UniProtKB/TrEMBL annotation:
This is Peroxiredoxin. PROSITE patterns: THIOREDOXIN_1 (PS00194), THIOREDOXIN_2 (PS51352). It comes from the Bacteria. Residues 17-156 form the Thioredoxin domain. It comes from Pseudoalteromonas denitrificans DSM 6059. The keyword Magnesium does not apply. SUPFAM superfamilies: Thioredoxin-like. Keywords: Redox-active center, Signal. Residues 1-20 form the signal peptide. One of its GO terms (molecular function) is disulfide oxidoreductase activity.
Length: 156
């Protein structure tokens, strides 16, 4: 059974790698007004995590993403949280900070979510050093093995 599961994930990752597409460029701002663009991460493996402060599934997933980011950031991994579909007055960066995460969040990602074809939150993209989306998921399981496997792929 375990061999079948491993084989499934290998095939899954190979298929995503074979049809990888270029990550759409963007420029967004943090709550502090700092401008951040996809081009700031050129040549670096990047996780883009689309989320919302009110989303319980995002809250469930984020500890796992934060743990993996912490584990691999010394190898060059970058992670950017993109807040979208927020209520008036929401403070996404403050929410992440209160949860103990050292992640940068850009706000007003609604238009960008359309470019990335985000249908719901959380949606997480794994982007290679060459700017290709090699894997995306809407899984909210913080211990899902494909998260770490995708990170290992984009670190290559």
């Amino acid at each position: 059974m375990l061999k079948n599961i491993i084989l499934f994930f290998i095939c899954l990752f190979m298929s995503y790698n074979a049809v990888a597409e270029k990550a759409p460029d963007f420029t967004l701002k943090t709550q502090a007004g700092e401008t951040i663009s996809l081009s700031d991460y050129k040549g670096k493996p990047l996780i883009l995590h689309f989320w919302a402060t009110w989303c319980p599934y995002c809250k469930k997933l984020q500890p796992g993403l934060n743990r993996l980011y912490t584990k691999y950031k010394k190898q060059g991994l970058e992670m950017l949280a993109i807040s979208l579909w927020e209520d008036e007055g929401a403070t996404p960066q403050a929410v992440l900070n209160s949860r103990g995460y050292k992640l940068t969040t850009v706000i007003n990602g609604d238009k960008l979510s359309k470019k990335y074809k985000v249908a719901g939150t959380p949606t997480t993209f794994f982007i290679s050093k060459t700017g290709q989306i090699v894997f995306s998921t809407s899984n909210s399981n913080p211990d899902a093995p494909e998260l770490e496997q995708a990170i290992k792929m984009i670190l290559k």
